[in-house]
Amino acid sequence: MRFFATAAKGTEPALRDELRELRLPGVRADRGGVHFEGDLPHAARACLWSRIAVRVLLEIASFDAPHERALYDGARGVDWREWVTPRTTVAVRASCRASRLAHSQFVAQKTKDAIVDAIRDGAGARPSVDRDDPDVAVAVRLARDAATLYLDMSGASLHERGWRAHAVSAPLRETLAAAILRLSGWNREDALVDPMCGSGTLAIEAAAWSRNVAPGLSRARFGFERWASHDDDMRRRMREMRERARTLVSPAGAEVIASDTDSAAVQATRENARAAGVEVEVRQGDACHVESPGPRATLVTNPPYGERIEATAGLYEGFARALRRARFGRVAILAGTPAIARAMGRPADRFWVLYNGPIECRLLVYAHSAESA
Predict the structure, then answer these.
(1) Could you tell me the pTM of the whole model?
(2) 182 and 302 share a domain?
(3) Residue 231, domain member (yes or no)
(4) Which value, in Å, is the radius of gyration of the alpha carbons in the chain?
């Protein structure tokens, strides 16, 4: 079987490395995600263990679709009975690029018509559509008049870890935070500090990663566990996979420190960490006075920028001065404005272009923060 794990733009290399660590076959990065191969248990492992993937898709068909009839016939020609019955609900989403069929909503509608017509002809009844919580979610990608059909194995987006009870403005998605942590070079053993923690996403993801908590462990079930083909053997495998994941959780992890000047952010981080079941030392404090807990500690943070930079003149310069005094072993900053890089006063040792939603950012990584660098 062929699968495609989707990822936020710019995080594909981090996801590629993660899936290779999970020992998945045929891993290959592409625009928008990473391809891999294997069987359903391989993909189930990706759903359970990937911190960076947004969705895991199973490819089920591909065909030319230069016009409406070809799209309908191609989708109807798939044997949907393995996954869909009149009792299951379905939903279809689509994306279009460089194709004559350019309206994604129309493509989704025609594909949905083909699916329900095929089930009706075979079973005498049509499945219902549930756009909010379908049993079977289908994705259509139309590129250069070629259609590829996928089944979404994830169900809800994999960034939904289940612990975010409270959020402040402009929170990072958990999957992006996980990619930032991996790209930062943090070793998951030495202390990690986030002095502008917001609702605590980076700190909580770091604490969970350091303890080897599978990010999908809190989910009652994934999307593929609602398919008609989900049989007793696969249920047994999933029970064993979850039980194994629980045994792999370390009782203690790295020291993780989160702080923010905003008392609401501090409270949100405390409550979110408690909901996630991880230990994070949460403080109220100014990033311009950040201190390193040790020479090997890593600082990873997402400073405010754009609409979030109101009334924070001088923040970047003050933060950069504090870093030079604090002497962290490694620093990673998600910079949503060039002003952050200018304030640092020296080029980053490495950088990646990432997207925080629609905002193009640079993840700036410095090998150390010493004054002499």
Answers:
(1) 0.94
(2) yes
(3) no
(4) 23
